[in-house]
Amino acid sequence: MIAAGAVLAEPMLFHAHGVVSRLIDDAVVVFDERSGSLHELNPTAGMVWELLDGNRPQAVRAELSARFDVPEAVLADDVDAVIESFLACGLLSDRHGGEAIVAAPPPTVDATREGRTGCWPERLAELADAVSGTSTLGPYQAGDLRFVVTTDDRDVADELRRILRSLEAPTIEPCEPTVRPFVRYFVVRRPTGWSLLFGSDGQLLPLGRRNDVSLVVSTILWHLNQQIVARCDGSVALHAGAISGATGAAIFPGVSNAGKSTLVAGLVRSGYGYLSDEIAMLDPETFTVAPIPKALAFDPGSFAVFPDAEPTVAPPFAFGLARKWHVDPEVLGHVGEPGTVRIIVAPQYSPSATPALERLTEREALDVLIGSAFRLDASGFAYLATLATTVPAYRLTSGDLDATLALIEPLLP
């Protein structure tokens, strides 16, 4: 514990590098980008936190003693306990912009995903030459990801061409300095199934083998989502649907099966522009959300709501229609333009519920946004905190789609 009288022994303390804070609903919320941890401080701890950045503990005790007209000896233990907790959490440094005095624990790495794939023994050009009768699809673009798909299976080519149509990008010469190089997917038919490979930075990485052709497509789409998020340079990616209207955009953050795709599809069918059904890409500088207009993914619960959206697929993919529909957004409406975020609506689907809206506090809105972020650093936290304190946010209980749309459309841009 820091001794109350040991003024000369006490270092000057600062907020550590990578640690940021914001005032949300009259409470100080501290975010540590290294560990991803979030700390909500009580009023006393919040005052200590604000005073500590560039002060010694003794100065903090003296300031609080004067502010509350309480002898330093009375509050010293409480103030020192708060400072000790900050140190234990790795939130403080002994120099401006420095590393924490006590390092925060590193983020957990999923060993099943990290390092599992090695360098493929063949190079990109060699594989392309080895596969006869190939089809190369694309180029496509989703956020900052530009990609093509090469396959020697005609059915796979036709199905991916159908699903990826809305991501088609103009052909740009790869030598242009502002254009990131393409990444490439390979789907190769083998006697025992299909081999899936991902080519980037001159290397090929195996994505696995699949015996079910519908799983070939779902694996490619799953990996695309990971790459879209991994390459969102300068943007904040949320697990959220998004639409655009006449005066801006609405985002719908939520967990899987919260009803995001069904809600977004209903709004697109009503005339709103489609931006995304599961990845909302937000620009912290302009507060806009950009379109990631990949095909909407319908689970079986949405089939009866949009029976006319059932896709036509080749016979090898017919069995997969019982699990998932990939629906071109133009079947329902149109792809929208980027728009400034005007409203946040966090849906929760309950089939028998009467649709209802509940206004969220700023702190609740921040929790929803942080919980929906695919990855977050200090600047991303600051942006989401600003969004939570400046944009109205609601929790939506959705049931019947038509009744839900009638409830929320008056609030949408």
Word description of this protein:
The chain is built from 13 helices and 21 strands. The strands form 5 sheets. Strands 6-7-8-9-10 form a 5-stranded mixed beta sheet, covered by helices on one side. A 5-stranded mixed barrel has the order 11-12-19-15-14. The chain has helices spanning 43-52, 57-68, 72-88, 124-130, 154-164, 213-230, 260-269, 300-303, 315-318, 329-332, 362-372, 378-390, 401-408; strands spanning 14-15, 19-24, 27-32, 37-40, 92-93, 135-142, 145-151, 183-190, 193-200, 203-210, 236-244, 249-253, 273-276, 279-283, 288-290, 296-298, 325-327, 334-335, 339-349, 356-359, 393-398. The chain folds into 3 domains: 14-93; 124-230, no CATH class; 236-411, Rossmann fold. It starts with 13 loop residues before the first strand and ends in a 5-residue tail after the last helix. Helices cover 31% and strands 28% of the residues. By secondary structure, it is an alpha+beta fold. Helix 1 packs across helix 3. Strand 9 and strand 10 form a beta hairpin. The model is unreliable at 1-8, 103-124 and 173-179 (pLDDT under 50).
